[in-house]
Amino acid sequence: MAEINICDPDDYAALEAYVRDYIERFCIIRGDMPGKAKGSRYAWMFYLRNGLFNPDFLRATSQMMLHKLVDHLGTADFQVCGAETAGTPLAVGIPFAARMKGLRINGFVARKERKQYGLMNFHEGIANEKPVVLVDDLCNSSTSLAVADAICRQAISLPSAETAIVIVNKSNRRIHTSARLAGDLYLPPSVKVLSLFTLDDFGLSNPSH
């Protein structure tokens, strides 16, 4: 099979620099904030939706994710399932980036909750039979990837995902042998997670996730 070239090294480096800078400036919120756990406080948090609804940021992250997926999998023969809601723009952006390279990749979104009326569907969009790659903004942060994985397997009867990709893995490289191809606390260990960045890229530490 002919090699699929999504980005050459210089192009990828330019995209990476832009996305990292954008996240640092607009998507890391610093200050004293209430945490998820009762009584906890945050000194910082990621809010990547500040980027995902910016067309330039979405274009850049989608190209980077497509490049990493094709490089890791050695093929573009897969479909992407976005974890609602941050994964929704990525489930559109990655297939769009693929079309710009002459590739056809399907995208759909797993809902957090089943609709209670009409079609009562668990997902938006039309899934096909190809292998599923889960996509989201963050991993090791919430159960959204695990919910999407369960919906694919149980509600849509698709095979278990073997790969997921996120913008930021909320761990540090020192925690895993390879945090850029690591796992997620809430996903089965068999699902390997690619990420564009880890906390080290932003000088942050979150050893307890």
Q: Could you give a short description of this structure?
A:
The protein has 209 residues and is an alpha/beta fold.
Percent helix range: 25-40%
Order of neighbouring strands in the sheet with most strands: 5-4-3-6-7-9-8
Please tally the β strands and state the result.
9
N-to-C SSE string, H for helix and E for strand: HEEHHEHEEEHEEE
Largest sheet: 7 strands, mixed
Low-confidence parts? 174-180
The assigned CATH architecture is 3-Layer(aba) Sandwich
Can you characterise this structure?
This protein has 209 residues and is of the alpha/beta class. It has a single domain (45-202), classed as Rossmann fold (3-Layer(aba) Sandwich), CATH 3.40.50. Helix content is 33%, strand content 23%. The protein has helices at residues 9-27, 49-52, 55-73, 87-100, 144-155; strands spanning 28-34, 41-46, 79-83, 106-110, 123-124, 132-139, 163-169, 181-182, 192-198. The strands form 2 sheets. The protein has a 7-stranded mixed sheet with strand order 5-4-3-6-7-9-8. A two-stranded antiparallel ribbon has the order 1-2. Helix 1 (9-27) crosses helix 3 and helix 3 packs across helix 4 (87-100). The chain is globular.
